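Ops channel
N.P.: pipeline sanity check, posting one input/output pair.
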């Protein structure tokens, strides 16, 4: 029986890499039915809204959504689309794996780290944002709850156990942010006690940044709050070749959205230049979520072989080819 997934092509290079990803999914025998929906600038132009109700309904209707990068216009009155989606569907867990691929010319060769970021609380919750009338000062509220902290840390340990991971590192700033980060750390310690089979470390965010640069192999699963997770996951992407190699999953109790974490790159949109790898890896996360491990393994093996061989790779990977050639190289292997 065919599974229906919601597809949001997105802005800029979004349609290019989404089209490439759907072709690969079809050739891998996934048997999906696609329900297309608009968001971002594409939706704003046709409906006057960045996130139309019809799109929200489509996401709610289907268990999984594959999303191209979206552009939120800069300026007052526009709320981040990604933040809105996470709140709307309570997508509390942001899962961003990074893995070394031979052929990327990245600085490191043996990286395999998953950053799990709490997606709904902290500094990105938008609480209490205020700028004084004279523009001389601004403030915002960071709110951390025990429920949110326990939920994300438990998610991290369950993922670690399911995937045979050996260590979970809770990243915090409890030495300074004694209330918010302190509550997160205290909760993480309590949850860790329920998983004696998995090593638990706790580390201040400053030290994590330094150690990721000096000796990233020591990390396995990182779990942290919203702001720290956003920064650290981008740092981890830099270890394996950049955001072009970085997928992301936003997972809730009943819905999940899978994406490339990079931007919409409007300067190269429609020019057959974009590397679709990040979204392809996001699609692999989606397949694993939908319990389709064989298709996920086949696509991953094809990507690994294409990049390692340099066969029809895109310019950011050191090649001279475009999106369509790179996609066809993967399809040929499938």
């Amino acid at each position: 029986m065919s599974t229906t997934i919601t597809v949001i092509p997105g802005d800029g290079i979004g349609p290019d890499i989404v089209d490439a990803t759907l072709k690969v999914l079809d050739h891998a025998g996934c048997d999906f039915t696609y329900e297309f929906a608009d968001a971002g600038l594409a939706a704003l132009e046709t409906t006057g809204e960045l996130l139309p109700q019809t799109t929200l309904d489509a996401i709610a209707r289907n268990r999984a959504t594959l999303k191209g990068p979206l552009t939120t216009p800069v300026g007052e009155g526009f709320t981040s689309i990604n933040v809105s989606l996470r709140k709307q569907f309570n997508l509390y867990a942001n899962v961003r794996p990074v893995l070394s691929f031979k052929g990327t010319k990245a600085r490191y060769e043996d990286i395999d780290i998953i950053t799990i970021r709490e997606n709904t609380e902290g500094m990105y919750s938008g609480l209490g944002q205020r700028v004084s009338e004279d523009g001389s000062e601004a403030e915002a509220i960071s709110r951390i709850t025990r429920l949110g902290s326990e939920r994300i840390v438990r998610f991290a340990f369950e993922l670690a156990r399911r995937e045979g991971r050996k260590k979970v590192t809770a990243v915090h700033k409890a030495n300074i942010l004694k209330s918010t980060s302190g509550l997160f750390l205290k909760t993480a310690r309590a949850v860790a006690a329920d998983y004696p089979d998995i090593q638990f470390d706790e580390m201040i965010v400053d030290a994590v940044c330094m150690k990721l640069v000096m000796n990233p192999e020591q990390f396995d699963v990182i779990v942290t709050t919203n702001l720290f997770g956003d920064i650290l996951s981008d740092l981890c992407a830099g270890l394996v070749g950049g955001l072009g190699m970085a997928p992301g999953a936003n997972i809730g109790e009943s819905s999940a959205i899978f994406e490339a974490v990079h931007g919409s790159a409007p300067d190269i949109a429609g020019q057959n230049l974009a590397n679709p790898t990040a979204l392809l890896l996001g699609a692999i996360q989606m397949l694993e979520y939908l319990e389709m491990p064989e298709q996920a393994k086949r696509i991953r093996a094809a990507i690994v072989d294409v990049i390692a061989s340099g066969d029809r790779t895109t310019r950011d990977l050191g090649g001279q080819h475009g999106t369509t050639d790179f996609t066809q190289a993967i399809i040929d292997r499938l």
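N.P.: looks fine end to end. The longest strand covers residues 93-99.
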